[in-house]
Model the fold of this input.
Amino acid sequence: MVFSSTLFLFYFLPLFLILYYLSPTKYKNHTLLFASIVFYSWGGPVFIFVILFTTSLDFILVKQIEKSVSKKQKKIFLCISLFVNLGLLFVFKYLYFFTNNIDALLSLTGSPAIRMSKLVLPIGLSFFTFESLTYVIDVYRGDYKSLKSFKNYLTYILLFPKLIAGPIIAYNKIGWQIESVRKTNAEMRLAGFLRFIFGLAKKVLIANVIGETVEELYKLDVNSIDTLTAWAMSIGYTMQLYFDFSGYSDMAIGICKMIGISIPENFNFPYISKSITEFWRRWHISLGNWMRNYLYVPLGGNKGSILKTYFNLWVVFIISGFWHGAGWNFLLWGAYNGFFLMIERLFLDKYLKKSFSVVYTFFIANIGWVLFRNENMDVSMTIYKKMFSFEFHQLPPVDIRFVTILCFALFVSFSGLFKAFYNSTQNDELFFIQKKWRLNCLFLISIILIVLSSSYILGQDFNPFIYFRF
Amino acid sequence: MKERKYNILFGILLVCLLFHLAFKPFQLIKDQELSGYYKIPESIEFNASNYFSGKFRDSLEKTIKYQFGLFPGFTRIHHQIEYSFFNRLHVKDVHIGKDGYLFRYCEKGCITENTYDPVKLDSYLNKYLRLQDSLKAVGKNIVWIIAPDKNIVFSEYLPSDLKHGEKVYGFYWTLQNAFKQKGINFIDFNALAFQEKNKYPFEVFYKGGVHWTNAYATRCFDSVCKYLSENTSIKIKNTISTKQVEHPWGADIDMEEAANLLFPLEQDSLYLSDISSESNSKNKKLLLIGDSFAHMWTWTKYFANCFHPQSEFWYYNREVNTLSNIGKETVNHKKVAKRVKDFDTIIILFNSANAEYLDYGFINDIVK
Done:
């Protein structure tokens, strides 16, 4: 069930909210857990068993870690947990990729291929695996205590607003909120709802609309496109991805807020960054934090030699790329970003203090997204070739809708450059509490956005024939 | 105080998400159904196999969308926004031309450089001529009518992406030439509409319609009656009156209706014709074979008032109707030759967009 579906928006969400608010305080987590199980079972009926299995095992293992006196014993339980969690992730997400590549190598030697068919990936596997790991590792490190009840642990992992597309919430950020008696106040509820609506609009009115044209452009023969079309494809996808992902995060944050759970931000105007290093502090922040705390730091971070630091950085970015998908393009995309982080640290950083740096960051990120978009490397290379061939045969085959929405998307993406706008978006509740007219404006805009988003959710695919024809 | 306000605003937003329930299932408010032809997906049975395979989920999500209380309303809002701001219509095969004219693009038949296999067309027309002669010998008539098509008559308004040169109708032009070369008598309302489009006091086509207007269909009907009166023993005299109306009639603005917009498109004035006929052929049976253009003559009962009540209309040579009522029978192609003997006059009417399909196999059903 995606947030922008009729079922979720008009049935599941309002029903859940009503049930949640009507539930006595001590049963709120039960309601939340029940809704999360229904939500996940609906999207992945078979995979609910996978997630239940891993969460049960992790819960038991973490209890054992906490109980264990010797460090060795703790390590054994940690390793079992890591093995199971990462093993499942490997089997479902990466095994096919590896066997495919091994088959390619075997074919060179003339040996028989292994051949396996692609497995269906359990929804949200990459996200909940990383979250499970934070729980296991945090308790193992002794930084935090384990959750008392299995129900609460299950609620943390299955918490439906962030289950499918994050943000990846570390255990230490949310565990205490689930265990404590949560009370929502009116500001939080309203701010959450408004945030949800703005996220929905970003996804439905911007990302989906741009995405529709981008899909059409990608259906063209890339060898026949010219420079303008290649740029329309890449910038279109850059905006589609940002508004899709950040819209989804906004919706997740909004829903959590409505039920009194505060989860960390995932995006903060990434395209106003003045370097790729800064970009990665503003884009998919929760993944960046996870990578820093649970991979970069354990690898040694920047505590070793400069060479070791660069090596660690690159490893983190390559793994981060691979986390996004099992393909060479994702690996290369990770390495590409790691490379820019390195050269920025080496020398580029001091040149990136001027306004040009925003253009530089957008340019580098935009080029990177071409790799990210295309699993077929030949397609990416051809698009790059076209982007810089400076052949201008015709205007890109896009309509006024794409151009309008794309311009609007670019404007919103860069609006954070204006201080007043940037500051106003940093705290939802404060923003409208401070001045009355702001709330009235936001409310009115929200109503309009609900109507517009709903009409795009419902009407977009409705193209009837004029008549029935034989 | 503030908290109360926040709660009220939150409540209003929540009600917004639940407002659809007032339409369906509670039916406290009624909404106009959407126009055009579309299929509501059927929901599949709930069982373990369908559930775990995800089939039940997919089918239910699709069904829910179509059964959703505000589906027609929201769809209209969406379509209106897309039309007003982005010049996009959401009807299959319909394109926006210049000055707000809508055009239907239909696969191969409409705007194409393709045309018939000359050998097959020649053989077909020879069969038609043989049939025409045999019917004439027993005092029966057959008339072929080509109904006008908006894409031809108003080709200057066609959007550029649908234009492939000056003559965009491969099939229609070939058929017209072939008829002339073979000496087959036919009525070409394209030619007439083309001549009359700026002189005729009423509209030939409305901007939002695929079909000829009620007024022009009436004018053409009168023309057919005059042709029959001059060339056969059938004598029909019509008196036509046309008045301006506020609402469109029947299929007058069918494309616009299927576009499901909130507000009507800027239209020419709408007219409705009325006709009274004096006929000497009320005992003669007519067989009308045609496409949707013929509906303008059957729904209005124009022919029904002039011919025997048992006269028939074979829609696309597939569906048997009487001249005024929709029937449920389908044409038995093996018995067409026999059935044709029951009729005194045969009229074949096809719009040039369907020219590729000729008469949908009627002649082949009779002449082997």
